[in-house]
Amino acid sequence: MNAPRMQRSVPDVLEDIASNLAQLVQAEFRLAKTELKEGAQKAAGPGATLGAGLALALYGLGFLLLAAVYAMSLVMAGWLAALIVGGVLTVVAGILVGTGTAKLKRANLMPDKTIRTLEEDAQWAKQQIK
Predict the structure, then answer these.
(1) Total domains present in the chain
(2) C-alpha dihedral, 11 to 12 to 13 to 16, nearest 10°
(3) What domain range is 50 assigned to?
(4) What is the pTM of this model?
(5) Which tens digit of pLDDT belongs to each residue from 45-103?
(6) 23 located within any domain
(7) Do the domain assignments include residue 87?
């Protein structure tokens, strides 16, 4: 003999759906937070090394540019040598900033797993409501 099925009331079903949706949203926030933390942790060590290297490179570049100005001032006026070095440096900086900005715009910084699971959750919720 088959066991009789219990019929649930509509408010009970809606309450379960609301509870499940709340749990899903909380889980998605935890997943997003975890993804972002993992990304930050992976970038922290290399970021510090990169920062120190960039600072030293900046000082080194400054001294090289100063040496270039001094060398050029042997054959022309000092102000003209500084103007030429500064102009070249500004052009190179503009090219680097433009290239870096373009690459940054193409970078994917979205938490892909979280977005994908949110879409799956939305689909699940639609099926539950039907």
Answers:
(1) 1
(2) 120
(3) 34-129
(4) 0.45
(5) 887 888 899 999 999 999 999 999 999 999 999 999 999 999 999 999 999 999 988 88
(6) no
(7) yes
